[in-house]
Design a protein that fits this description.
The protein has 109 residues and is α+β, with helices and mostly antiparallel strands. It has two domains: 1-45, no CATH class; 56-93, no CATH class. The protein has three helices and five strands; from the N terminus they run αβββαβαβ. The strands form two sheets. The chain has a three-stranded antiparallel sheet with strand order 1-2-3, covered by helices on one side.
Length: 109
């Protein structure tokens, strides 16, 4: 979502400054670093499977949060893992509550 990209674009430099890290770049490409660490971040809004087809260089780390349950497995996993050289952090979050809304309260009968 464009809103997530915009938020990350503003938040990452703020977080880096609070963590005594330097930031270079702007827009959708950022480099966060200090004297011993360096992370390059590319913010992309795209359909993941169109991105997979166009991506030419795998990343060192793939982070997919609350995503795996939306895609058929195991077929999608192979495609997703093609985006990384070695590491993937793939989480599925569930807060313990399933809520279906609207509840129908106040519905005319």
């Amino acid at each position: 979502m464009a809103e997530n990209i915009a938020y990350a674009r503003a938040w990452i430099p703020q977080w880096a400054a609070e963590s005594s890290l330097s930031v270079e770049g702007s827009g959708d490409s950022l480099r966060v670093f200090d004297s011993v660490r360096e992370v390059r971040i590319r913010l992309v809004q795209a359909d993941v499977f169109e991105f997979i087809q166009k991506n030419e260089q795998p990343a060192n780390l793939l982070i997919a949060n609350a995503f795996l349950d939306l895609r058929p497995m195991p077929e999608s996993l192979t495609q997703l893992l093609s985006l990384t050289r070695s590491l993937a952090w793939l989480t599925i979050n569930f807060d313990g509550v399933t809520a279906l809304e609207p509840t129908g309260a106040g519905r005319a009968r």
